[in-house]
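We were asked to recover a plausible sequence for a given structure. The inputs and outputs are reproduced exactly as logged, with field labels preserved.

PROBLEM: sequence recovery
POSITIONS: 103
GIVEN STRUCTURE:
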């Protein structure tokens, strides 16, 4: 799994990079070794926007969050991504979303 962190109007700190890598380690087993994670952290008017784009064998995913701290954004984007991966897994296994079953 390749993790790349970019900054626009912001230089990602070493602690942000380490925490990002640590939190993304949990995603490695779901995404596989060939996954590319691209974080873009943008500072604009004292707000940080974190965009996460993922390319893997399961598809392409994109998640975004805005708050006053880039660290808080990590706590938002990673669970959102996990939700997207769960939905995709349900679609792959059942051919439809599990919450819309009409059995």
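RECOVERED SEQUENCE:
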């Amino acid at each position: 799994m390749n993790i790349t962190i970019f900054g626009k109007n912001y230089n990602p700190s070493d602690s942000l990079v380490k925490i990002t890598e640590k939190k993304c380690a949990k995603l490695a087993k779901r995404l596989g070794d060939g996954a590319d994670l691209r974080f873009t952290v943008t500072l604009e008017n004292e707000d940080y926007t974190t965009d996460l784009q993922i390319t893997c064998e399961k598809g392409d995913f994109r998640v975004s969050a805005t708050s006053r701290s880039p660290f808080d954004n990590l706590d938002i984007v990673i669970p959102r991504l996990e939700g997207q991966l769960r939905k995709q897994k349900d679609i792959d296994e059942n051919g439809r979303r599990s919450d819309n079953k009409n059995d």
